[in-house]
Amino acid sequence: MRRTPLSVAVLVTALALSAAACGDATPPVPSAAPDGAAFKPVKQAPGSTLTVWADSTRQPAVEAYRKAHPDVKIDLVTYSGQDTDLRTKIQLFDRSGSGWPDVVFSTSLTSASWTATGDQPYAAPLDKGLLSKDTLSGFSKGALDPCTSGGTIRCLRNDVAPTLLWYDKKLMDKWGYQVPTTWEEYQELGEKVAKEHPGYLVGSVDVAPNTYLWPSRCPAEGLTGPKEIHVDLSDPKCTRATEMLDALLKAGSLTAESPWDASFAKKKADKVLMMPGPTWYGQYLFAGPLKVPAERMAAAAPLKWSDDDQTYTGDYGGGVWIVSSHSRNLKGSADLVKWLTTDNSVQVVNPGFPAYAEAAKAWLVNPKNTSYFAGDVAPAFGQASGQIWPGWTDTTEFNVTELYKSTVLSKVTQGATITSLLPDLQKAITDKATSLGYKVK
Fold first, then answer.
1. pLDDT in tens, 259-286
2. 365: which strand partners?
């Protein structure tokens, strides 16, 4: 880990950071957890130095806060941002009884789960006086669901990554194809592409759980209690998705190869007609390793299953900011995470799509974020961010997509169907969850 130089600002006796920077009145220190158990903050030292852990990508945002708040002392420590790294270090501090950072950033929603559990959860309750209801209600629909445990909000989402449909507008127009609006139309077009333009692709099944099973409302990871999940991959909402994938794999317009592989970029980058994926695929996959020319890729709204009453989609990514329950400066810590997630000046250059609704609007009008695309992506991004199905969670202590890759994907590349391997995935999820203390329904 690497530390940046300490701020040399003078300590103040009583901070009113929220009022000064973001409009909230100075909040009281939270006094109770949602289940009625008393939350007992350590002795507070208003104005004391904030130790902040963040990855290198978020470092500029923290530096921007420090510049905008010269009276706040910050000790910034850069680390990987990965959940396993964070957990190892927090467990060490738990054993020693000291050393916890005041604020941490994690690239994984999994951190929202384990930091909210234990005799004294690492994550402090944010909705018990630290942040106002107005602030919390400003996040996009469902964005704070992964941060909510036992009815209490214990982290703030930095960005969201709903899945939608990416497509090559130039090729779609050239071939006279209509952009599908349902999964049934997507399959039909995929089969048509396989016949009329062999070699061209409508997607990859490398992360099928997030991009296909989640939007289909497949009960693969439904959190029904703090350590209780619902898993039933025999559900028709699972098999309708996998049967579609199997058909398109057989036709040849879907691939089991990851679009992030070097071989894919070399041989198939110019063969992508469509690809369901998260919002960040635009700049970080197509403009990145695949090097698709500008003004080619467009974003369409998430696809809908005809039998469903409304459109649902999945989520694939998005980091969180967490305030430590051990912090001696809870008010200062809360103001920091609030500013980092809601202030337009920093969110407008956020690498991901902001979770805070007003910041998301500002992000979409920044040409640096959208000029690469063919057409306006704002309608699709805005619609997708409010359609994530809440029946699936990425906050468990295990990752369904990783289990899918080790259990299913390796065999699909050898010719097996995804549908036939669902029992294997069911067992892998059940075994992993049980080993971590979950009750599987």
1. 999 999 999 999 999 999 999 999 999 9
2. none
Q: Do the Cβ atoms of 404 and 425 come closer than 8 Å?
A: yes
Query: What is the distance between the alpha carbons of residues 280 and 301, in angstroms, rounded to a whole number?
Result: 14
Alpha carbon distance, N-terminus to C-terminus of the chain: 41
Instruction: Please say whether the beta carbons of 22 and 16 come within 8 A.
Output: no
How far apart, in whole angstroms, are the C-alpha atoms of residue 135 and residue 7? 27
- pLDDT tens digits along 287-307: 999 999 999 999 999 999 999
Residue from 286, 276, 200 nearest 241 by CA:
276
Beta bridge partners of 3: 77
User: What is the model's pTM?
Assistant: 0.86
DSSP-derived pairing of the beta strands 203-204 and 2-3: unpaired
8 Å CB contact between 269 and 257:
no
CB atoms within 10 A of CB 90: 22
Any idea what the Cα angle at residue 431 is, between residues 429 and 434, rounded to 5°? 105
As a whole number of angstroms, the distance between CA 353 and CA 369 comes to 9
* Dihedral sign of CA atoms 265, 267, 269, 274 in order: negative
Residue spans of alpha helices (H) in 69-212: 83-96, 111-114, 133-137, 169-175, 183-196, 208
Distance CA 374, CA 365 (A): 15
- The lowest-confidence range among 14-18, 153-157, 404-408 is 14-18
DSSP letter assigned to residue 189: H
Question: 272 has which bridge partners?
Answer: 201
Rounded Cα gap, residues 251 and 268, in angstroms: 16
Question: How many CB atoms neighbour CB 4 within 10 A?
Answer: 15
Whole-number Å distance between alpha carbons of 153 and 116: 9
Closest to 122 in 3D by CA, of 79, 92, 151, 80: 92
Distance CA 7, CA 239 (A): 56
- Asked if residues 6 and 63 have their Cβ atoms less than 8 Å apart, the reply is no
371: exposed, middle or buried (C-beta count within 10 Å: 0-12, 13-18, 19+)? exposed
Q: Residue 203's beta-bridge partner residues?
A: 254
Strand partners, 52: 76, 103
Cross-strand bridge partners of residue 80: none
Contact 54, 62 (CB under 8 A): yes
